Amino acid sequence: MPLAEAPATPSLLWRTVSACTCGVAGGLSRVFLFGASKTEVNGLDGFLDTLDQRTDVDGREKGLITVSNHVSVYVCTPVLRRITSSV
């Protein structure tokens, strides 16, 4: 279908399949994250203390940067590739 003939919004079927694909990928990632791996939080007490000290917005002197390693990122891509390649 040429671009000029494409509908302005995707069809109901397309939106439904898209929502289901995202839901399945998210669900599988969540199952992997909480079922097949060990979730760790290092330094949570110190982080919460830092957040409690920063409640005064005007008193902040510098920004707060957080770093995390998301295991689910490694699962999403292969799962999405398998789902989309079979459609």
Automatic annotation (TrEMBL):
GO MF term list: acyltransferase activity
User: Does Transferase show up as a keyword for this record?
Assistant: yes
Q: Does the keyword Transferase apply?
A: yes
Name-wise, this protein is Lyso-phosphatidylcholine acyltransferase
Keywords, comma-separated and alphabetical: Acyltransferase, Transferase
